[in-house]
């Protein structure tokens, strides 16, 4: 799952991920609310990794994480969250990594090194 308000970032990240692996299916959301609604209604969603932007209008990435933590365990099990943000602010990184379920923090644009990190952060 890819949650990012930037249509250009969604497209670019999706292309990079799909070119890197034919086994990847990217489920894009431009807003955090609909992404949460999808997770709520599909406990057996099969989503292993959520790439989440921080700075989004409406519900930002940290607000998403607060709401995500309130979901039933069945909606969160076997899913890791990686913040994928344009912010290289160390305070954002520290805050994100302190959130339950967040296993990584990457800065945009995603590159080959980031892809290698994602492979290590995705659940087996």
Automatic annotation (TrEMBL):
Residue spans crossing the bilayer: none
Alphabetically ordered keywords of this record: Phosphoprotein
UniProt KW Phosphoprotein keyword: yes
Domain of life, per lineage: Bacteria
Domain Response regulatory: 1-123
Pfam family, one: Response_reg
Modification 4-aspartylphosphate occurs at: 53
Database matches in SMART domains: REC
Official protein name in the record: Response regulator
């Amino acid at each position: 799952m890819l949650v990012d308000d930037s249509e250009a970032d969604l497209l670019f990240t999706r292309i990079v991920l799909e070119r890197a692996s034919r086994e990847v299916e990217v489920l894009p959301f431009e807003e955090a609310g609909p992404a949460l609604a999808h997770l709520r209604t599909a406990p057996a969603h099969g989503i292993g990794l959520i790439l989440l932007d921080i700075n989004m209008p409406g519900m930002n990435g940290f607000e998403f994480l607060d709401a995500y933590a309130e979901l039933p365990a069945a909606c969160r099990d076997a899913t890791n969250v990686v913040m994928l943000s344009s912010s290289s602010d160390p305070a954002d990184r520290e805050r994100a990594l302190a959130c339950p379920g967040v296993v990584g923090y990457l800065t945009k644009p995603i590159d080959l090194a980031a892809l290698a990190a994602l492979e290590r952060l995705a659940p087996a």
